[in-house]
Amino acid sequence: MRFSPTHRFFSQMTHLEIFYTAEHSSTWLARLPLLPQLSHFSFADVDLLPICPDLLQACKLLAVLAYLADTDIDGYTSPPLPPLFQDIRFVLVTPVYSGPDWIRGIETGMDYWKRAEMFIAQRRSGEIEASQYRIDIPAPP
Fold it and tell me: With 70 as the cut, is the pLDDT of residue 32 above it?
C-alpha cells in the first residue's frame, strides 16, 4: 500500500528528517507542502540544496530547514551567498552525531532541532547576525 502525504498518518507530522534521497526524490519533495503540520525539515544530501528555496516558499509553516552537513559545501558558500543561505529559517548543522544527539535530546531537551530553533530566534532578534547560518554542534562527552 502506498501512502499519500495527505494520509491521516502524516496529518500531525511536524518534524521530518531525511538522510538518503532516492532517485525519485523530486516526486516526494513536491509533496512536502501537502504535509499540513510540517514545521521542521532536515536533510543530509547536499544535492537537495538547490531545491530548498522552493521548499521554503511552498511550505508555509516551515520554521526550520536544516542541512545536516557531512560534506564540504564550499562551492555553495563562496560569495555571493545563495538566497537560500540568506533565509533566516535555513540552518547548516555540523557535525551531526545522530545517535548521541537524539539521546541528548531525550535526556536534556537540547537536540539539533532545539539548537536550530534557538539559533533562528537569535538571528531574528539580532543577537546573531542574520548572515550567519551555521551551527557547530559539539561532540557528546
Answer: yes
